[in-house]
Amino acid sequence: MSATETTTRMQRNGIDIDDTFAEAFPMKATRLIITAHNDTWAQHAAIAATGFATSVIACGCEAAIERPLSPDETPDGRPGVAVLLFSMSGKELAKQVERRVGQCVLTCPTTAVYAGLKDGEPIALAKNLRFFGDGWQISKMIDGTRYWRVPTMDGEFVGEETTFVVKAVGGGNLLILARDTEAALAAAEAGVAAMRAVPGVIMPFPGGVVRSGSKVGSKYASLSASTNDAFCPALTPLARKTELDPGVNCVMEIVIDGLTEADVSAAMRAGMDAIVARGAEAGVSRLSAGNYGGKLGPFHFHLRRILGGEGAA
Amino acid sequence: MSTRLHLRLRQPPALRVSLDDIVPETGADATEVARRPLWLGREAVELGELFDVSAQALAGDATPELVIEGDCRRIDDIGRGMNGGTLRVEGNAGDYLGAEMLAGEIIVGGNAGDLAACELRGGRIEIGGGLGDFAAGALPGGMDGMRGGTLVVRGNVGARCADRMRRGMLLIHGDAGDFLAARMVAGTVALAGRAGAHCGYGMRRGTLVFAGPAPETPPTFVETRHDITVFWALLRRSLAYHGGPFAALPARTPRRLVGDLAAGGKGEWLLPQMD
């Protein structure tokens, strides 16, 4: 029996829902709108700009595509992509935005970039990238917003001068305990697909899924995080403490960053609903979540409360 | 609580009169306003001698209003330095209308004189008729012209309009006189009618949009042929908001000229109607 499971059992469609919570942290976030001549080039820019941004542990920020945008949703009437970037501080986020937009959006053919939030703390977007224009850049104020036009070999790059940073929530998560890799992957994919329909959230890991869930600390002093041994099936008979039942041979985690606590909660709900709808026959036996005892992060997402079932407070 | 102050000109004064202390935030006390001194030549007269003054309270948190009625062609400085509220002139206005204005809105039903919107910094001015010379330019002795806000003119403008303009948006539904946007530093001017001679003379930066007939290209302006689809989409959407001839500018990328090459060449002319 799992250490997180209480005497009261909650099941949905044959899947056990642990009486536990995901522990999340305050982060700083911004939304960027990247547009291009067509969907393909908008995607190229967005994918590049949000690359190597799975975890703040070593990437500087967590970033991903929020959703594609139709031409009538973008400032310049072209196809676009909304991306969200999260970091632990506004200063680090400003650095990441400048580097990523400068190297991945400015460089990508036909793109333009705009702020996707209209309130918050302003940070530079194209403000400093304009110097690439070597004096040929043009500033333009349109309806109170300043844009920079930088001559490039394909014409010109247009970027809004600033974007806005808001307080956000990072590290919401869902652990999927399954009988094998096939079942865990299929459930994770279904969960991520449902979460992607929720606005204001991203799942920053590859495909939205992480297999190397971590715990805080390590036996090696230089490491701040190491493998979450309590959820590793390889260590079920070896580790001092395990959270896995017999029959659980693969665990996948979905990590969620959101602009608000409500967004993260809505995404977790959507993900759990999608996994539960597939039923225990699909190979998932339990849903759980990662936390640090509630001492580190102020945002606690209780699985049972989110599902609104028994044990919900 | 906000108020609407109403000034009705009894008859056009014999001499020019400056109204620069009377703005929408002036206050609700009609008696006090009527006692304010105005200069009629060398003679100080009470405002109440020239205008019928009345005031009424507005409901809720409505912005303060000032309504000026009558043929005010000799009343200068209307809305000068205004910093909020709404000012309506039901008739014509004199010189310096909305000069140095910071915020708020001025709506003039008729024409206004010279130097309107000079050194405008913010807010919005809409003129139902036309303007005299030197609109949106610099005040005498000033270094820069209009530097913010929006000026919409439904009629024609005189010479030297937008001279040394630095920022903001100016839309002219009619024709413009000579030297439109000469020595322009930055900002946007959109013209629906015909431009006079020497348009854009010495312009350093800024954008001139010719929604109507294209002027003759001066020798110090040259064409660029790069893709400005994005910028045009942003600008076109903003211009369309003002309606009239700007509501249906073609989506295809306009012809673009840059100049004045004698002044750096970073200004641009956009010619959307030309194939």
Automatic annotation (TrEMBL), chain B:
Q: Which domain of life is it from?
A: Bacteria
Coiled-coil positions = none
Which GO biological-process labels does this protein carry? methanogenesis
* InterPro entries assigned to the protein according to its UniProt record, in alphabetical order: Formylmethanofuran_DH_suC, Glu_synth_asu_C_sf
Q: Name the Gene3D superfamilies for this protein.
A: Glutamate synthase, alpha subunit, C-terminal domain
Per its record, what are the GO molecular function terms?
A: formylmethanofuran dehydrogenase activity; transition metal ion binding
Q: Spell out the protein name for this chain.
A: Formylmethanofuran dehydrogenase subunit C
